[in-house]
């Protein structure tokens, strides 16, 4: 349930949600440049998401939003930054009025991330706000939009100095470590201060509409649930493509690489929901129990099941190594395709290819489930069925089927049954992932957040391959080159075909 008297505290609040997110955060937090762009993405989403919820009337009735960061600034400056990224392209007066209201419930306080006194001050400020607006009970949601270097001290200070008498919750974002050992260490340190029940680990892919739809699609449709296994399905691809490179953010990216940035978290989360057994109920624990169970059936990725790439200059765009913030000889992958296997009766032998890349030819995230061939006999050259779930852009689901060409011919042609959300649900607004997740955290619903043991199994699957890529056990492999703006390394097609994927002509 949503408690009316909750306040939200955004730590690392910049409010200025500029394109070059990392620079802004570094500047505002006055920290050494944070470790990577992955931590940086969230703050740019936080305030627009909070505003989106506010505009739709989903925030608690007496909500107040308090920003906290190191930079000293007055309220005018803070509000300027806060609103700079709130969209109102048509200057709609209603939205403008909402923005003004939103400003009124947003205050800012500057302070250090290490100093007890500063957190005591923050607490005083929170109590003042609570006494004025929400004094019935004191519930606080802390959102850590901070680089990992200060996660722990801040989490500790909040627990010691800013813990309220009501419900306290903390939202944190990846990176949760760099491998099994570092993730466990981070998890352990956080657990000294915050319980699992109070902790909400965001993987924003779990807030995306099409990912959330998967439970319904799978378990509310016999048509799908009955053939959802190795008997019917030949191979599955989960693909993430971005059309831009690291552009000036390479220094941060280089520490992590595409596997940590996208595969180990976002794509693996999608995979687990796609493949888990039906949960006993829709409760957060039942869902996450099933996710953990299927992830535990996945052995660590083999070198031979991996293809790595790095983009080079092309189409007037710079290569990864041209980025001055990247070491000249970096072998950090900006593209990776890895094949995972699930050793359980449902999925044994079915390859799940996760692939992700920066600086590719398009922006697209999708799941492509390719069914097996029909048994030979009456048909020749029949395309395989495919179920495609387009996560973004243009959310849609389409099923490739064969049908007889209308008319006197008996020839079969592949067609698509197409559910494009914009057309079918033209009146519905699809919420942003962060809107959906912040609302869940306010309600205390953990279903779409990553549990500690889930994170641990996820790292187990990826840690050996990451150590191999980083040359921890021998020479580091050299990634294959691909031109900026291409589909990826040319070796990708043979790689996918090796796992049984057959390209069809029309899609
Ligand atoms: C972030 C990654 O987690 O996800 C970024 O760190 C990536 O590198 C982003 O661009 C993609 O998110 P979305 O919602 O735009 O697909």
UniProtKB/TrEMBL annotation:
Top enzyme category: oxidoreductase
Pathway terms, separated by semicolons: Carbohydrate degradation; pentose phosphate pathway; D-ribulose 5-phosphate from D-glucose 6-phosphate (oxidative stage): step 1/3
Name of the protein in its database record: Glucose-6-phosphate 1-dehydrogenase
Entry keyword annotation includes Transmembrane: yes
EC number: 1.1.1.49
Entry keywords, A to Z: Carbohydrate metabolism, Glucose metabolism, Membrane, NADP, Oxidoreductase, Transmembrane, Transmembrane helix
Entry function: Catalyzes the rate-limiting step of the oxidative pentose-phosphate pathway, which represents a route for the dissimilation of carbohydrates besides glycolysis.
Coiled coil: none
Reaction catalyzed: D-glucose 6-phosphate + NADP(+) = 6-phospho-D-glucono-1,5-lactone + NADPH + H(+)
Molecular function GO labels: glucose-6-phosphate dehydrogenase activity; NADP binding
Domain Glucose-6-phosphate dehydrogenase NAD-binding, residue spans: 45-213
Organism in which the protein naturally occurs: Phellinidium pouzarii
Domain Glucose-6-phosphate dehydrogenase C-terminal: 215-501
């Amino acid at each position: 349930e949503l408690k009316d008297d909750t306040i939200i505290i955004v730590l690392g609040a910049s409010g200025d949600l500029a394109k070059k997110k990392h620079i802004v955060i570094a500047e505002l937090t006055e920290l050494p440049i944070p470790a990577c762009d992955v931590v940086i993405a969230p703050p740019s989403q936080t305030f627009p998401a909070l505003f989106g919820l506010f505009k739709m009337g989903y925030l608690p009735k007496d909500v107040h939003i308090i920003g906290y960061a190191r930079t000293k600034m007055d309220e005018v400056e803070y509000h300027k930054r806060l609103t700079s990224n709130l969209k109102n392209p048509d200057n709609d007066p209603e939205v403008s009025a909402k923005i003004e209201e939103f400003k009124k419930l947003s205050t800012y306080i500057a302070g250090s991330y290490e100093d007890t006194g500063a957190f005591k001050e923050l607490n005083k400020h929170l109590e003042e706000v609570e006494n004025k607006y929400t004094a019935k009970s004191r519930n606080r949601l802390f959102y850590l939009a901070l680089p990992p270097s200060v996660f722990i001290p801040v989490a500790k200070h909040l627990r010691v100095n800013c813990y309220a008498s009501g419900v306290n919750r903390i939202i944190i974002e990846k990176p949760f470590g760099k491998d099994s050992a570092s993730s466990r260490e981070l998890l352990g340190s956080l657990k000294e201060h915050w319980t699992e029940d109070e902790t909400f680990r965001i993987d924003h892919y779990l807030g995306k509409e099409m990912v959330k739809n998967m439970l319904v699609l799978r378990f509310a449709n016999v048509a799908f649930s009955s053939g959802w296994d190795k008997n019917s399905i030949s191979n599955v691809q989960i693909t993430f493509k971005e059309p831009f490179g690291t552009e000036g953010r390479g220094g941060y990216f280089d520490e992590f690489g595409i596997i940590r940035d996208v595969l180990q978290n976002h794509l693996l989360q999608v995979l687990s929901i796609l493949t888990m057994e039906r949960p006993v109920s829709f409760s957060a624990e039942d869902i996450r129990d099933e996710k953990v169970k299927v992830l535990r059936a996945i052995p660590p990725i083999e070198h031979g099941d991996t293809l790595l790439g790095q983009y080079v200059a092309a189409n007037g765009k710079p290569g990864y190594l041209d980025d001055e913030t990247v070491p000249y000889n970096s072998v950090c992958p900006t593209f990776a395709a890895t094949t995972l296997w699930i050793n359980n009766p449902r999925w044994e032998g079915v390859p799940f290819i996760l692939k992700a890349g920066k600086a590719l030819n398009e922006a697209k995230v999708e799941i492509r489930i390719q069914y097996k061939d029909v048994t030979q006999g009456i048909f020749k050259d029949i395309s395989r069925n495919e179920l495609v779930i387009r996560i973004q852009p243009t959310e849609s689901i389409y099923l490739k089927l064969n049908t007889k060409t209308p008319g006197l011919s008996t020839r079969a042609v592949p067609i698509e049954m197409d559910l494009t959300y914009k057309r079918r649900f033209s009146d519905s607004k699809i919420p942003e992932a962060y809107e959906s997740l912040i609302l869940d955290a306010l309600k205390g619903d953990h279903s779409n957040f990553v549990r500690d043991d889930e994170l641990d199994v996820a790292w187990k699957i990826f840690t050996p391959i990451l150590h191999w890529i980083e040359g921890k056990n021998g020479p580091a492999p050299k990634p294959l080159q691909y031109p900026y703006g291409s589909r990826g390394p040319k070796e990708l097609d043979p790689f996918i075909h090796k796992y049984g994927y057959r390209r069809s002509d029309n899609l």
